[in-house]
Write a structure and sequence with these properties.
Layout (H helix, E strand, L loop, with lengths): L3 E4 L10 H7 L4 E5 L2 E4 L2 E3 L3 E5 L6 E4 L6 E4 L2 E4 L1 E4 L13 E7 L1 E5 L2 E4 L1 E4 L4 E5 L2 E5 L4 E3 L4 E5 L2 E5 L4 E3 L3 E5 L2 E3 L6 E3 L4 E5 L2 E3 L6 E3 L4 E5 L2 E3 L6 E3 L4 E5 L2 E3 L6 E3 L4 E5 L2 E3 L4 E5 L4 E5 L2 E14 L2 E5 L2 E12 L4 E3 L2 E12 L6 E3 L2 E8 L4 E3 L30 H14 L4 H22 L11 E5 L5 H14 L8 E4 L1 H4 L7 H12 L3 E4 L14 H15 L5 E6 L1 H9 L2 H6 L3 E4 L4 H14 L3 E2 L1 H13 L9 H20 L6 H5 E2 L10
Parallel strand pairs: 1-2, 2-5, 3-6, 4-7, 5-8, 6-9, 7-10, 8-11, 9-12, 10-13, 11-14, 12-15, 13-16, 14-17, 15-18, 16-19, 17-20, 18-21, 19-22, 20-23, 21-24, 22-25, 23-26, 24-27, 25-28, 26-29, 27-30, 28-31, 29-32, 30-33, 31-34, 32-35, 33-36, 34-36, 35-37, 36-38, 37-39, 38-40, 39-41, 40-42, ...
């Protein structure tokens, strides 16, 4: 027979403290607590039920030191308020807990947790039903290890850390709300698996939902409203699936996917972003199915670095509907793309994208290598038959040959538009002149002059080496001296194996992918490290030398790195010295050139620099030491990104900001340093 014990602050036949009743209770017993305030900490290490006799909120258990409650058994608690002193803001370890669920199977129902949060660890199975967590200095709920947690109809408000932090285990959240957390609304890390169904996250001062490492996050229906950061942020190898979600009013990009992360967005409405509707960077991938992206200040969708995108039937709009600046070939099928500034699609000069059937409202800029296949919408009123409708891009005939002279001129113009690099441009121009002669002699049946097309690019990071290498390959392709002209990037880790017999096949595989184009080896000097005896890098170099000889008319190899290190690399093998006979030197950018790079970035994203802003930028770049590792163009792009962030924070506090205020970058937006 199970016991039923009562607790009250006064009266006959009752326990004066909850702890005393728990010590007297049998396994499976029930303790009912009369309304009142009880100053004690509880440890529940046996199966028991705690019930607030007067209903939810009538019983308050308070301690000056957290945790208030530690559970290590199968326990049910109903209607109790647990109040702990606030911990240091942002604390996210077990000591921040008002309630620590460490073992067993636990049900918290109609309870309130104040001052510190709920931590679930170990293999605990916990259910939180109609629980309110408020005025918490650290995380609202933290889940670690292999715990399994179900959260239903709960409210987390005034949380100083993350609303829900899941480091491991599995969490299912249904019909719950997170308001105004200082950290992310939901943060999944490690191998966590988190599912949100019909939840509302609003006013979060960081990202509404975020995932990194190998975490998996599923968001179905629900709303992500007015996040100061991103509505959804992914990095690492994280995965997110969002279905039928409404996300609006985010300070930065509504959905940001970076690292090697992957996002699948189906039927979502992403509106009112401070930057992009969807931003895809690094080597991340995004699948868009249906849905609507609207009201982004910069671009509806921006794909950069080596990111990739597939969109089916999505309606996309923004300052520019779609911006593509990636080595991949994003594919958009059906749907519609609109640019509020008149540009529906902007494609990087060295990029390719496929538009298979979307309706375009606006023009397409850039991308001479873009493959644009748009439907003929039919003539509009007063439009001659066979002419493309305004805002539509006619499809190029499949396999239509390009004029080589026009293609080379266009590519040389792109090279000339790069900031700085005057000597590099002159050297490439001279090489193109020689290559034209090679082609003329070949067409006339004459043998070509002795010439090595392989190059060394010597310079610090961020000086445009990869960009020039890509253009060089395109130029040789336009001249008919390379069959494809594509660029394959590689580093030591791509070429050197981990054990004997592994390096040669690995190097050969990379080389074969580059056939018909350019093999760009970054930090090539790492193949000949100093101060080491036997190293697999030497085998990679020897393999490369032989492949370069066997396929000398089919591949161009460009070795890049720091100037002094590249001289040592070429001298490390006689075969390299005979094949790399020309070095192009990429100097560090001067301050004025770095300002021009920032200005070019600003123009691309529809910002403006005032004269005083340029002066402040120049002063910033003048202060930066040009030491080894200086980022050059990367540093300039990083400064621009920080300027837009500071601008967003400044303008966000300006009610009814004008168009000038939304686009002008001012001296106060320039950071104090480039870090």
């Amino acid at each position: 027979m199970t016991t039923r014990l009562r607790v009250a602050t006064h009266g006959w036949g009752v326990h004066r403290s909850v702890g005393a009743a728990l010590r007297a209770a049998d396994v499976g017993g029930t303790v009912t607590i009369r309304a009142g305030r009880y100053r004690e900490a509880l440890v529940l290490d046996r199966a028991v039920t705690l019930v607030a006799e007067g209903g939810p909120g009538s019983v308050r258990i308070v301690t000056p030191v957290a945790p208030v409650l530690v559970v290590g058994a199968t326990v049910t608690i109903r209607g109790v308020v647990f109040e702990a002193p606030p911990t240091h803001p942002g604390t996210s370890d077990g000591h921040a807990a008002a309630v620590l669920l460490d073992q067993g199977s636990v049900l918290l129902e109609d309870c309130t947790v104040v001052g510190a949060g709920v931590v679930v660890t170990g293999t605990t199975t916990a259910t939180l039903r109609r629980v309110t967590i408020r005025q918490v200095a650290g995380d609202g709920v933290q889940v670690t290890d292999d715990a399994t947690v179900t959260v239903t109809d709960c409210v987390l408000t005034g949380v100083g850390g993350c609303g829900l932090r899941v480091v491991g285990g599995r969490v299912d959240v249904t019909a719950s709300r997170i308001d105004g957390s200082t950290g992310a609304g939901v943060l999944a890390t490690g191998t966590a698996q988190v599912r949100l169904d019909d939840c509302v996250l609003t006013g979060v001062r960081d990202s509404a939902v975020a995932a990194r490492d190998d975490a998996r996050l599923t968001v179905t229906a629900g709303q992500l409203v007015d996040a100061h950061g991103n509505a959804a942020y992914l990095t690492g190898r994280a995965r997110i699936t969002m279905t039928g979600v409404v996300a609006t009013g985010s300070g930065y990009s509504t959905v940001h996917v970076g690292g090697q992360a992957r996002a699948e967005l189906a039927g979502c409405e992403l509106t009112g972003s401070g930057e992009h509707g969807v931003a895809v960077v690094d080597t991340a991938t995004v699948q868009l199915t249906g849905g609507r992206i609207d009201g982004a200040r910069l671009a509806g969708v921006h794909v950069a670095d080596r990111g990739d995108l597939t969109a089916d039937g999505a309606t996309i709009s923004g300052g520019t509907g779609l911006i593509v600046d990636t080595a991949h070939r994003p594919l958009l099928r059906g749907g519609a793309i609109t640019g509020t500034g008149g540009v529906a699609v902007q494609v990087g000069d060295e990029c390719t994208t496929v538009l298979a059937g979307p309706t375009l409202h606006g023009t397409v800029h850039g991308g001479p290598w873009a493959v644009l296949r748009c439907p003929d919408p039919g003539p509009r009123s007063g439009q001659p038959p066979g002419q493309p409708a305004p805002g539509q891009v006619p499809a190029a005939p499949a396999g239509a040959p390009a004029d080589p002279a026009d293609a080379v001129a266009r590519l040389l113009h792109q090279l000339d538009q790069l900031v700085g690099l005057d000597d590099v441009k002159r050297d490439v121009g001279a090489l193109v002149t020689v290559m034209r002669l090679v082609r003329l002699r070949r067409d006339a049946g004459l043998p070509p002059p002795p010439l090595s097309r392989h190059l060394v690019f010597a310079g610090n990071p961020g000086t445009g080496k990869t960009t020039v290498a890509r253009l060089y390959g395109r130029i040789l392709h336009a001249l008919g001296l390379l069959t494809q002209g594509h660029l394959v990037e590689a580093s030591r880790s791509d070429l050197v194996g981990e054990y004997v017999g592994h390096t040669a096949p690995k190097t050969t595989g990379v080389f074969q992918r580059a056939r018909g184009g350019v093999l760009f080896i970054d930090e090539a000097y790492a193949l000949a490290p100093t101060g080491q005896g036997a190293d697999f890098g030497a085998e990679a170099v020897a393999t490369l030398v032989k492949l370069m000889e066997d396929h000398r008319d089919d591949v161009v190899v460009i070795a890049a790195g720091y100037p002094d290190d590249m001289a040592r690399f070429v001298a490390s093998n006689p075969g390299l010295a005979s094949r790399f006979t020309r070095t192009l030197r990429f100097p560090d950018y001067r301050s004025a050139e770095l300002v021009r790079i920032v200005e070019a970035q600003a123009e691309q994203h529809r910002y403006r620099l005032t004269g005083s802003t340029r002066d402040t930028l120049t002063a910033l770049f003048d202060r930066l030491p040009r030491v080894d590792g200086f980022g050059n163009g990367r540093a300039a792009r990083h400064v621009f990104q920080r300027m837009t962030e500071r601008h967003a924070l400044r303008v966000a506090t300006t009610p009814g900001a004008s168009e000038d205020e939304l686009t002008d970058l001012r001296p106060q937006d320039v950071p104090d340093d480039a870090d």
